[in-house]
């Protein structure tokens, strides 16, 4: 499966919908989107990974790169993910301590609202 | 022992094909369903690392994967032809690759948007219960294995 990307903004929070496989072939597209969003002033990003079938360290690198970019603007990059197969690589790499990871977009939006 | 060999040119698009082939053969060899995601991710990491190394050092050379069942194990060997000094090159301005994984500190250790090849090997080591890495001037060989059905390919042929 290829990678499908979409995004929309709700109340200063930009939700990035990702579907498919994030690997060495497709990750550059996600990186370009995150860079473009930050360049256009979107500094609070929520990446919905619920429809991601595969994520490798290349994809992790893109997410970390996005996080570094938004943090440079006092922003945030958080994730929605409940799939064990995807969460596993975050646990292996210790990145569960770096990213806020939520069970649903609604849960993340509530937390974002509280933090504002 | 039955062996499947696959060679592919160093293009990122082919890594997915390698993952799919490895997962299909792992299933056929009798690797437990619960381990197939680990096989898919580990083989993907090894192939991604090899593709990135080839693109730097020898883009025209193919990458080779061997998949075999032997004595109740499903074994995958990924061999590249790039000098295995890429870790040192990637981190020449750093103290070294981020071997120790430590949450928040990890992000600050990363030299760029990519976690680079050393990180991929660390992920493989966490996924396969038996991993050996053989670096040499002629390339890097990563051998990894998982438990499989004792009868292997023959059982499902």
UniProtKB/TrEMBL annotation, chain A:
The lineage of its organism: Bacteria, Bacillati, Actinomycetota, Actinomycetes, Streptosporangiales. The keyword Phosphoprotein applies. Keywords: Phosphoprotein. Gene3D superfamilies: STAS domain. GO terms for molecular function: anti-sigma factor antagonist activity. The keyword Phosphoprotein applies. It holds the Pfam family STAS. Belongs to the anti-sigma-factor antagonist family. It comes from the Bacteria. Residues 3-112 form the STAS domain. Positive regulator of sigma-B activity. Non-phosphorylated RsbV binds to RsbW, preventing its association with sigma-B. When phosphorylated, releases RsbW, which is then free to complex with and inactivate sigma-B. This is Anti-sigma factor antagonist.
TrEMBL record, chain B:
CDD domains: HATPase_RsbW-like. Pfam families: HATPase_c_2. Residues 8-146 form the Histidine kinase/HSP90-like ATPase domain. InterPro entries: Anti-sigma-factor_SerPK, HATPase_C_sf, HATPase_dom. It comes from the Bacteria. Keywords: ATP-binding, Kinase, Nucleotide-binding, Serine/threonine-protein kinase, Transferase. One of its GO terms (molecular function) is ATP binding. Transmembrane segments: none annotated. Gene3D superfamilies: Histidine kinase-like ATPase, C-terminal domain. PANTHER family: ANTI-SIGMA-F FACTOR RSBW (PTHR35526:SF3), ANTI-SIGMA-F FACTOR RSBW-RELATED (PTHR35526). This is ATP-binding protein. It comes from Sphaerisporangium album.
